[in-house]
Design brief:
alpha/beta
Length: 510
């Protein structure tokens, strides 16, 4: 049953990929450009272009596909599809060992569903999300195996270290889960770590984190892992506590756990936030009160790591400023799906054990009120997840139509033989990527000054061109600025863009 449910989940995502859903964007194209440069041997970036954090594992995985299929969205998403297909059996294996086979099956069934926010995290190669979950679950499986064994297992601890190093280089979001894994090793595997297994763990960790170490050795401290981590925790705007609570807990949790329609969460769905937190607290208490075993320790780690993730997100300014899009920062919560599911599962399915019989123990069914109290939120949560998946399926034609407009824009540029252009951030890099850098785009802001150019050589190259085109989404602030700045320029419409074509050398906008 778990295999069949997982196959449905993978099939749904294959269908989405075939329909160009979700729509690609310039963040994904940035990974594509890195993959293109890797394939050509021109560059081997450690981090996402334009910043000093978020590793480029996706770019290295996609590079062979870009070389084989060309600079397409499909080339970027074949690896992410494979990662999701790996994530489901890994989750089944973890939950089966820590909880039960049927809870593992239920977990796979829930993870097979896919809201817009969830599928974006899993399919879009935008840096740091599709690969994090399977790597983290594989690491937790390794920790569990070592914790349950009395003999040193150097090859497993080496793999744990390697995955831990790769995760730390790749993204900062899983740190609560990594901390939980480290504590489990300290509590249950101290003897193994004192042997050769400890050295393989350290060696694997250094190997996995070697890109990060190499980067820090070749840059100033302000660009190092520790400095960037501190900067991300202490900078940003200062939204009110109510905005953080609303965006981080009430709105963020249903979005981040896959219960909402594309870019929208109804007010009636916000009850899930506090219920989710309460279920995690109950799960943590149940795990803490259980006999001290690696399994109960893992249950405690999954519950507490999810709680820390939600609290950390709610403290971040992004939760108050842009809660819809920033809910991607809760992507690791899917790994804790069995943690919140277990208290409900116990109340519905598990009998109550009573002692005192001559034979030792007998069981009685749970009272109906307990089953009802657990069944209502579980049924409502599953129904919302199914609804969110259906809402994404209904929204697919919108993504497909938008994706169909991108080749039209590129064709219009080709028809006028324009190879250098300025545009907004969410346009530029997909043009550069999808044309294999035959057409180079530099980012300008709404005031025509330099915008966020993640790959800065593009800004210099376009600035040195004799002729450039300006491109803006119709009705955008940039479109209004261009219409006022260049009233005599010929203008053409392609898909939902205005192309402002050159007629004479342009002023220096740098």
């Amino acid at each position: 049953m778990a295999f069949a449910l997982g196959l449905l989940g993978v099939g749904f995502r294959v269908w989405l990929t075939a329909r160009d859903a979700p729509l690609t964007n310039s963040d994904e194209a940035t990974i594509g450009l890195a993959a293109l440069h890797i394939w050509r041997g021109e560059d081997f970036p450690v981090y996402f272009y334009g910043q000093h954090y978020m590793g480029t594992i996706e770019a290295y995985l996609a590079a062979p596909f870009v070389g084989l299929l060309g600079p397409t969205t499909l080339a970027l998403r074949l690896p992410t599809l494979a990662l999701f297909a790996l994530f489901l059996p890994l989750m089944y294996a973890l939950v089966r060992r820590v909880y039960s086979p049927w809870l593992a099956t239920a977990t796979v069934g829930l993870l097979a569903l896919g809201s817009d926010r969830i599928v974006k995290n899993q399919l879009i190669a935008g840096g740091g999300y599709p690969e994090t979950s399977p790597m983290l679950v594989a690491l937790l499986l390794g920790v569990l195996a070592v914790s349950r064994s009395e003999k040193p297992r150097p090859w497993i601890t080496g793999g744990i270290g390697l995955l831990g190093g790769l995760i730390i280089w790749n993204h900062l979001l899983p740190l609560p889960y990594l901390a939980g894994a480290a504590l489990l090793l300290i509590v249950f595997a101290r003897r193994q770590l004192a042997s050769r297994a400890g050295w393989t763990l350290a060696g694997g960790l250094l190997l996995g984190a070697s890109p990060l170490i190499w980067h820090d050795l070749h840059n100033t401290f302000s660009k190092s892992f520790l400095a960037v981590f501190w900067h991300l925790q202490t900078t940003g705007t200062d939204p009110s506590a109510s905005d953080r609570l609303y965006g981080g807990g009430l709105l963020g949790v249903p979005l981040g756990t896959g219960l909402c329609a594309p870019s929208y969460c109804a007010g009636w769905q916000l009850w899930w936030g506090p219920v989710y937190a309460a279920l995690l607290v109950i799960a943590a208490v149940l795990a803490y009160r259980s006999p001290r075993t690696p399994e109960s320790g893992m249950r405690l780690a999954l519950a507490v790591a999810a709680l820390i993730t939600v609290v950390s997100y709610a403290r971040n300014s992004s939760a108050g400023d842009s809660p819809i899009e920033s809910a991607r920062y809760l992507s690791c919560l899917l790994i804790s799906t069995p943690a919140w599911l277990e208290p409900l599962w116990r109340a519905i399915a598990a009998p109550v054990s009573l002692s005192g019989e001559p034979s030792g123990v007998r069981s009685v069914a749970r009272p109906n009120w307990q089953r009802l109290a657990a069944g209502v939120p579980l049924a409502a949560g599953v129904a919302m997840a199914v609804y969110a998946t259906a809402a994404l399926a209904v929204h697919v034609p919108t993504y497909t139509d938008a994706a169909a407009g991108q080749p039209k824009v590129i064709a219009a540029l080709a028809a006028h033989d324009q190879t250098r252009l300025y545009a907004d951030y969410w346009t530029c890099n997909w043009i550069s990527y999808q044309t294999g850098e035959e057409r180079i785009c530099a980012v300008v802001g709404d005031d025509l000054t330099e915008g966020l150019n993640r790959y800065h050589p593009y800004w210099d190259e376009v600035g040195a061109a004799r002729e450039v085109t300006y491109l803006a989404p119709i009705g955008s602030p940039l479109d209004a600025t261009l219409a006022a700045a260049f009233p005599d320029r010929p203008m053409e419409t392609a898909a939902n863009y205005h192309l402002y074509l050159p007629t004479r050398p342009l002023p220096d906008t740098r």
